[in-house]
Amino acid sequence: MELAVMRFAGIRLPHNPRNLKIQLKKSVRNSVLLDGRSITDKILHTPKLISGKGELYGEHCFEQFNRLQMLYADKQEEILSVPGVGAFCAILSELSLAAEPMDGVISFSFTFTCYDGKNVSKKISEKSTYHVKQDESLWDVSYKSGVDIDKLLKLNPWIRTPWSIKEGEEVKLG
Fold first, then answer.
1. d(Cα 70, Cα 68) in Å, to the nearest integer?
2. Which of 83, 114, 139, 146 could anchor a disulfide with 90, C-beta 3.0 to 4.6 Å?
3. Each residue of 59-93: pLDDT tens digit?
4. How many domains does the chain have?
5. How far is residue 78's CA from residue 130's CA, in Å, rounded to a whole number?
């Protein structure tokens, strides 16, 4: 079985992070009434943050980190696919080299700021099928098409897991 890995902007991260944190937060404002009771009058949702720490391995580990730096510098919202969690419109908002490099290994940390419910300019059209592009997962197809992941799995019973699709495969959307 192939273990799924995170993807961002169509780029497959070479290794899953060893730590992953998903932070959901609301700002709540309560108002106190004259009779002493309080009411909640404003709830603001802040963007979801997905952060983690991991390692890049091999003789090309600095090239891999430099590719992440280019994505950071790009400052565009792209699709972030996290195995078992889903796909989100996100920006790579923090990236750092977290430790001294060792032979063929560097440690790094990252934070993605996710914007739920925001349209992605790359949204695919309402077709009955979709041809999978390189390094896409079913989560990516779900996000781009607006079709729920469970519905996609029911429509495509030969797909066992959301990350097990291959480039060029045809996915039924409806």
1. 5
2. 114
3. 888 888 888 898 899 878 888 888 777 778 899 99
4. 2
5. 19
